[in-house]
Amino acid sequence: MKKWGIVLLAGAFVFIEIFGGLAMAKEAVKIGVIVVDVQGDFTKFKNGSLAVEGTDEAYVKSVEESTKKLKAMGFPIYATQDWHPKNHASFFTNHPGKKAFDVIKLHGKDQVLWPPHCVQNTPGAEILLDKKLVKAVIKKGMDPQYDSYSGFQDDGGKKTEMDKILKKDQIKKVVVYGIATDYCVRATALDAVTAGYQVVMIKNLSRGVAPDTSQKAIDEMKAKGILVLDDLDLEKIKAN
Fold first, then answer.
1. For tag attachment on the chain, is the N or C end more exposed, with fewer CB atoms within 10 Å?
2. Which fold has domain 30-84+124-238?
3. Which of 37, 82, 154, 163 is catalytic?
4. pTM of the prediction?
């Protein structure tokens, strides 16, 4: 009986070790999804003031369907939202004599002057996803003096709630896609790496302002260890 008792006890330890290890492994790769700035003013679908090429109704629907699929897999969804005041320094209309897409120096950095877009409480600022899909919306660009491409911080270094929310939810890996590849998607993905997350970027669920700058952004993301996938590939996303 003693011998059987030892065997059973050893088996119990093996069971605990294996399944405990699996539980830890599962915890280590808890995945969240960041949908970047899929808002009316950035889309052709809504005739947005700063619409990016390729953002027609079909694109918006493909983002929503893919996001639904990821949510059904149990991945929490987080959305970033440009949320600018009317007097935002990035708007060319707030700089007399300047026109859209001029570049000025702002706080010692180059600042592209954009058409007014995603102004707080306007239709163009609305996120175009089904709100029931989204666990949290992280607003950005609220400081009138600083642009904010990244979902993690503005150009002045002020942090958003993104990192705090992801850490609270024990997220270790993020899937990033949206608008625009060469601006807010790039900045969000790179800041996620800096914050210590594993990052996967989905190319065909994102749209860029220009082909050359989008390719440069993708190359930069890859150089920082970000896994860039052409399409939504759940097996590759879940792999370590």
1. N
2. Rossmann fold (3.40.50)
3. 37
4. 0.88
Kindly state the average pLDDT of the residues 203-228.
Answer: 98
Can you read off the two tokens belonging to residue 215?
A: 């390719």
Q: How confident is the model at residue 22, as a pLDDT? A: 41
CA–CA gap between residue 205 and residue 236 (Å, rounded): 16
The question of whether 99 is a catalytic residue gets the answer no
Give CA–CA dist 198/73, Å, rounded.
18
Q: Check 154, 163, 184, 191 and give the catalytic one.
A: 184
Catalytic residue flag (residue 118): no
pLDDT tens by residue, 135-174: 999 999 999 999 999 999 999 999 999 999 999 999 999 9
Residue 225's CB is within 10 A of a number of other CB atoms, namely 9
Whether the pLDDT of residue 14 is over 90: the answer is: no
140 tagged catalytic? yes
Sign (positive/negative) of CA torsion 214, 201, 169, 66?
A: positive
- Would you say residue 27 has pLDDT above 70? no
Which one is catalytic: 140, 154, 173, 191? 140
Tell me 125's DSSP state: G
